[in-house]
Amino acid sequence: INPAKTDIDAFAFEDFELVGYAPHKKIAMKMAV
User: Fold this and answer.
1) Model-level pTM?
2) What is the DSSP string of the chain?
């Protein structure tokens, strides 16, 4: 999170950084939509 921002309403997508994220493999399944 960008520490320069102090107002919660001022945060934007660019103010966050995803660090150390290791996603699981996808779960394959049949689905009716």
Assistant:
1) 0.44
2) --TT---GGG--GGG----S--PPPP-------
